[in-house]
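Researcher: Good morning. I'm working through a list of sequences from a screen, and I'd like to move beyond sequence-only analysis. For each chain I'm collecting a predicted structure so we can compare shapes side by side. This is the next one on the list. No need for commentary yet; just the structure.
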Amino acid sequence: METAAHTRAWRAILVLCGLILFGSVADLRAGTLLSPGPGVLVRKSAEPFGVFAFAISTGGLPQKWFALKDQLDDDMVQLALCDGDRDNCASPAALKLLAIVDQARTRDGRARLGETNRAINLAIRAVNDGADDIWSSPLATFQRGAGDCEDYAIAKLAALRLAGVAAEDLRIVVVRDTLAGEAHAVAAARLDGHWLMLDNRRMAMVEDENARGYQPLFVLYQSAVLKYVGEPMQFSGLDSPPLSLVAETR
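Model: Good morning. Structure tokens for this chain:
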């Protein structure tokens, strides 16, 4: 009798745990990008690659992104001012970036994204920051004329915003390039419900579901940094990720 009672008790506990588990899953599916509280997952279809992600606020990557955001906001103000008065614009870097924006504005949809991706890929010389991994604002990158992968992605976000693409349709995605064996950053733009990857390593844009060489790690959106769930990234001693601070956020 005692054994039977114990069995029924354990069954009750398991049923209760199952109800709690399913309730948690339902809450996760109902989560939104900017939901309050730590560790809230977004809807599976909300972000590039359709993978669950949760907000993080500590570690090297959020620190880099939040520090850059102030510079990015300042650049957007200066670019808007120069956009409205080209003759009195004192920034050659702003005028160079705005020339790309002008071309993008003459196109629509996928052509606008592709034009921006191609033009910025050609305008910036690829360099490796090495261990310093400095994240530069768009005007700093165009003034220098060179940048790392994240600098391309940041500049593309600024150009697309000025060209009329909504902020909620733009992301920076940190991935692991499985072919190169290193971390990599790309811009992502949503068009007609599909996410396109704007990569400085290729002129052609690829939809996230067709980007077989990408393992998504983190996604950056306005004032939020999210970490994809279940990423098994492990850097070996042979790997030299250009985004040196990615490992700090694991």
